[in-house]
Specification:
Elements lengths: L3 E3 L4 E5 L7 H15 L10 H5 L3 E8 L2 E10 L4 E8 L8 H15 L4 E6 L4 H9 L3 E2 L13 E6 L31 E3 H15 L9 H4 L1 H17 L6 E6 L5 H13 L1 H6 E6 L3 H10 L6 E3 L10 E6 L8 E6 L2 E8 L2 E6 L12 E4 L1 H17 L1 E8 L11 E4 L2 E3 L9 E3 L4 H10 L3 E7 H8 L1 H11 L4 H12 L8 E7 L44
Parallel strand pairs: 5-6, 10-11, 10-13, 11-12, 13-18
Antiparallel strand pairs: 1-2, 2-3, 3-4, 4-5, 6-8, 7-8, 9-15, 14-15, 14-17, 15-16, 18-23, 19-20, 19-21, 22-23
Bound molecules: S-adenosyl-L-homocysteine.
Length: 544
């Protein structure tokens, strides 16, 4: 019997048979909750027969003999499935759900399960928060379920059963595990996501990334200006909270934000006065560049999204998610193998089943870090208000194939050679991110092609206005705008995805046919776009 003490005192969690005292009442409560949220054809409770199956484990939380909550674990072929996680109404808020989840994860790991999965629905925000806080991520449909609007599928990889450490090789001092390697140092062998995280942290800390690649804000000032206008219009649509956090993830040189704030001071002074600028950036070198570009903006820097202060926020992130680590699984002999990196080469190790059939040699990428980040932001926006806009490159739906790439001195390089000296990126899986946002209780819009998005916000009108201000730069301004929207350049591969509260309407650029965020059709914009929006800010540096 597993007995795990949890808070509050005197609560224990034990494995019990299905009809132990009080369990039927908990299951009735679970049925009632589910009936209130989902149509009958989309409820999939584990029934008495499933819970009595030899491959089922039922854990019950009790205090003084009273059943306060329960959860069932079904041992499936290659994975564990969680069903029936329920806490009695009178025991809510005591941490019992979290303790049951931890207990069932521990039980599944002890049973040798590499991964846990579950089906839930978008209606139970409290449960979704719990799963996301515990590190669960969205995944495709699995088992006998079919994809439907009332189901969300989540999973969590479990640590392997502990194995005794290998004896250190003769003559090798230490034999330190990857986790204790010095920051920036690349361990002898590690999973691709650990390798990528470490290599990129080293790269952004030491290098000038803009010697290796350029980005939309560096190409055209209208990009940052339009994103500033997007934030202002969205702020007005959500009720003009004051103060409000304006957050940028990975601001690079600070160019996007400098362009946005310059235009906001004229176009949306009320938003400019309400906003408090927060920048999430790990590179000390780039923080210094951002400070130099934003001398009067008084930003606060953070290492991670989890450090942001509470409150409603407008968040912008351009080419940030593509730098986050990915995993890669390869189909070999009808099973999935996971790519690790050792001595500058890939090696493959057995992986948990993905529940997806694929042709031999196919590579599937999992962007779990990006999904976790989006889920965290979405949960926060669902509760505290706001919206987030992500611009990045990748397919709209799930796409197989290896998208890991390295850029060094502006040219493709071997991603595994010389870690820390090249920028490692991978395509963003927009469908998975949208799913993660919805599973965390928020709403998502898009992705829409970057070209369509920018044109809807008024890129043509803004570029024409800038060109009128600086006729000598007109050709360069139009060429830069074309690069952002042309399908052969950045217009189609790059996409925009927005997340917001379920009760909010689509933000600008996501609800065709909206008008431009910039003038010539000022009525199309929200009240933030006052008449002075028509007066273009002169281009300080029109042809970057
Ligand atoms: N948004 C900018 C820069 C994109 S490059 C632009 O469009 O020009 C990626 C940026 O994200 C850099 O500023 C880099 O230092 C930052 N970054 C990369 N990984 C990060 C991480 N894990 N946490 C915080 N910042 C990160």
């Amino acid at each position: 019997m597993t007995v795990i003490p949890v808070l509050p005192a005197h609560v224990t969690i034990s494995r019990e048979p299905p009809h132990s005292p009080g369990v039927d009442a908990l299951l009735d409560h679970s049925d009632a909750l589910s009936a209130a949220l989902y149509p009958p054809e989309f409820r999939f409770p584990a029934d008495a027969a499933a819970l009595s199956h030899p491959q089922a484990r039922l854990l019950v939380a009790r205090r003084d003999g009273l059943a306060l909550g329960c959860v069932a674990l079904l041992l499936q072929d290659g994975y564990g499935e969680i069903k029936r996680l329920i806490v009695a109404p009178e025991a809510r808020g005591l941490g019992i759900g979290r303790a049951l989840l931890e207990a069932v994860e521990t039980t599944a790991a002890r049973e040798g399960m590499p991964v846990l999965r579950l089906e839930t629905g978008p209606g139970n925000a409290r449960a979704l928060d719990l799963y996301h806080a515990a590190g669960w991520v969205a995944r495709p449909v699995f088992g006998a379920y079919t994809a439907n609007p009332h189901s969300l599928f989540l999973e969590k990889c479990l640590p392997p059963k502990p194995t005794p450490p290998p004896a250190p090789a003769a003559g090798v001092a230490g034999g330190a595990p990857a986790s204790s390697a010095a920051p920036g140092a690349i361990a002898a062998s590690e999973r691709l996501d650990a390798f990528m995280a470490r290599a990129n942290a080293a790269y952004y800390a030491r290098a000038d990334p803009f010697a290796d690649f350029t980005t939309a804000p560096e190409i055209a000032q209208a990009f940052g200006e339009l994103l500033g206008a997007w934030a202002a219009a969205t702020w007005a649509a959500i009720g003009r909270p004051h103060p409000v956090l304006l957050v940028e993830l990975g601001p690079g040189r600070g160019t996007l934000m400098a362009d946005a704030l310059r235009v906001l001071a004229r176009v949306a002074p009320a938003f400019r006065a309400a906003l408090r600028l927060h920048l999430v950036e790990t590179s000390p070198r780039l923080r210094a560049e951002q400070a130099a570009r934003l001398p009067t903006a008084d930003p606060t820097w953070h290492d991670a999204v989890s450090d942001l202060p509470p409150g409603p926020m407008l968040l912008l992130a351009n080419e940030f998610l593509d730098a986050l680590p990915i995993r890669q699984l390869v189909r070999r002999d009808a099973v999935w193998m996971e790519r690790h990196v050792a001595d500058g080469r890939f090696e493959e190790r057995p992986a948990a089943p993905l529940g997806i059939a694929a042709p031999e040699g196919e590579i599937v990428e999992l962007g779990e870090a990006a999904q976790r980040l989006v889920a965290t932001l979405a949960g926060r926006i669902a509760h505290q208000g706001g919206a987030a806009l992500f611009l990045d490159y990748g397919a709209a739906g799930p796409a197989a194939g290896d998208s890991l790439q390295a850029l060094r001195h502006g040219r493709p390089a071997d991603p595994l050679a010389d870690p820390g000296h090249a920028d490692l990126t991978a395509h963003v899986d927009f469908a998975a991110l949208a799913g993660a946002a919805r599973a965390a209780g928020a709403r998502s819009w898009g992705p829409v092609a970057q070209g369509d998005f920018l044109v809807r916000l008024g890129l043509h009108e803004r570029t024409a206005a800038l060109a009128r201000c600086a006729p000598g730069q007109a050709a360069a301004l139009h060429a830069a705008a074309s690069r952002l929207i042309n399908p052969e350049a950045m217009g189609t591969l790059f996409k925009a995805l927005a997340i917001g509260r379920r009760s909010d309407g689509p933000p600008p650029g996501f609800d065709p046919p909206p008008g431009p965020a910039f003038p010539d059709t000022p009525a199309s914009l929200d009240p933030v776009q006052a008449a002075d929006a028509i007066d273009p800010v002169p281009p300080p540096d029109p042809a970057r």
